[in-house]
Design brief:
This protein is α/β, with parallel strands linked by helices and 436 residues long. The protein has 3 domains: 158 residues, Beta Polymerase, domain 2, CATH 3.30.460.30; 142 residues, NAD(P)-binding Rossmann-like Domain (Rossmann fold), CATH 3.40.50.720; 73 residues, no CATH class. It is built from 15 helices and 10 strands. The strands form 2 sheets. It has a 6-stranded parallel beta sheet with strand order 7-6-5-8-9-10, sandwiched between helices. Strands 2-3-1-4 form a 4-stranded antiparallel beta sheet. Strand 6, helix 9 and strand 7 form a beta-alpha-beta unit. Helix 13 packs antiparallel against helix 14.
Length: 436
């Protein structure tokens, strides 16, 4: 089985590209199910966040074309985006996943949200039957690596989220958020985090707008605001000084004509939009209006540079941990390849041992419990000594290029592929060569 990964992220592609390739959360299950129907792909999962879109797959003989999957699923010609795409295979794919889960590849190194997003993407893939044993082994290790990085380094000590950076940007704009009125559009985790930071900074949450009213009501009650449906938003949003928007809408929900209407109602008092959605919720044309200021996810990068030296030092330590974990994972995966042969060899020899003990026991007559234990100990000891060298050889070969050859030789020597085994577990040729 071969691991493949293709994607774009905030380092390789601007938001204009990422939003073209983004897959809404509501469609991730469908996309993962389609992924494993693609030729050559056995298992897979898809991660789509505001900063990245990545497809990870276990493929048969490396024959799968993930570009073709993206092209077909998104009904999009990928040629204009080739310069932004990255693709990794095998160990490089493992390294990338470990870095992503550990938040070393995030816009804000050390931010905690990405691990939850990776876990959710994996859970969705499992729910639709797209992730099996290969993905389970890889993702379980990725989660353990992320935990080790967070435990053994201080990478998350001063970590911030995209939501907190958005609030920091609002502070830079206003000087103080005390008494500023805020409208949250979208009632997801990102909006919830933004609300917590805003309230801590003295702002008032006046409206929470969401596609489903129940979720809007729940969050509005928590933050002492008022719940709105999205269709009510355009009648109320002008009352807010700051609009933080993070929905899963496929198209912009705020357009230039909305901005013109808001400014008219506010008598040209400035209004700030912080858009942390991908695809973007706010049409960039709104930024051309005097009095409307729009910041998107890429604009937040300018606020990220606090304590850079500390984070870089901890990131270097985290990178060393990841390199160590990559080697351990590779060794573990290689050992998995020879495990079936080791188990088969042990079962085969145990069958022979048991058959010989039963045959000799009939000739010796009734044995005392002490004699039975002595025979068991002696025969098991012989089998273990016989198996020691083949099993050691298999385990050693698992870490080297000749693993397949060694497995085949062991299988042939011990006749592990023989289809016709007698009821005693001994092949006819072995019976002929054994003494009475």
């Amino acid at each position: 089985m071969n691991l493949l990964l293709i994607g774009v992220n905030h380092r390789t592609a601007p938001i204009e590209v990422r939003e073209r390739l983004a897959i809404p959360e509501s469609r991730l299950g469908e996309a993962a199910a389609r992924l494993v129907q693609h030729p050559g792909i056995v298992e897979g999962m898809i991660l789509s966040t505001c900063n990245r879109v990545e497809v990870l797959a276990a493929a048969r003989n490396g024959s799968a074309d993930l570009r073709a999957f993206l092209r077909d699923y998104l009904s999009t010609d990928l040629r204009p985006f080739e310069e932004y795409l990255y693709e990794y295979r095998e160990q490089e794919a493992v390294r990338h996943l470990f870095r992503v889960a550990s938040s070393l590849d995030s816009m804000i190194v050390g931010e905690p949200q990405i691990l939850g997003q990776v876990k959710e993407a994996y859970a969705v893939a499992r729910q639709v039957g797209a992730a099996g044993g290969e993905m389970q082994a890889l993702l379980s290790r990725a989660f353990a690596v992320a935990k080790r990085v967070r435990t053994e380094t201080a990478i998350g000590a001063s970590a911030v989220s995209v939501a907190s950076v958005a609030v920091e940007l609002a502070k830079e704009i206003f000087g103080s958020l005390k008494g500023k009125q805020v409208c949250l559009v979208g009632a997801g985790k990102m909006s919830e985090l933004a609300a917590q930071h805003l309230i801590a900074s003295g702002a008032d949450i006046i409206f929470v707008a969401n596609r489903t009213r129940d979720r809007a009501v729940e969050m509005a009650e928590r933050f002492h605001g008022r719940a709105l449906l999205l269709e009510e938003l355009y009648d109320r949003a002008d009352q807010a000084d700051i609009v933080i928007t993070s929905t899963g809408a496929p198209h912009a929900i705020f357009r230039r004509e909305h901005g013109e209407l808001f400014l008219q109602r506010r008598r040209n008092r400035p209004m700030f939009f912080i858009d942390i959605a991908v695809p973007r919720d706010v049409d960039p044309e709104m930024n051309k209006l005097d009095g409307i200021f729009v910041y998107d996810i890429d604009d937040l990068q300018s606020v990220v540079n606090h304590n850079v030296a500390d984070r870089e030092r901890e990131a270097a330590r985290a990178a060393e941990i990841i390199e160590n974990e990559i080697e351990r994972f590779a060794a573990r995966q290689q050992t998995r390849e020879v495990t079936p042969t080791i188990v088969s060899l042990q079962e085969h020899m145990e069958t022979i041992r048991q058959a010989e003990v039963d045959r000799v026991r009939g000739k010796l007559g009734k044995l005392s419990p002490e004699q039975e234990r002595a025979i068991e100990a002696m025969t098991r000891g012989i089998v273990n000594k016989v198996l020691h060298m083949p099993i050691t050889t298999l385990k050693t070969a698992a870490r080297e290029a000749q693993a397949t050859t060694v497995v085949e030789i062991i299988q042939r020597i011990f006749n592990l592929n023989a289809r016709k085994i007698s009821e005693s577990g001994v092949s006819d040729s072995e019976k002929d060569s054994q003494p009475d």
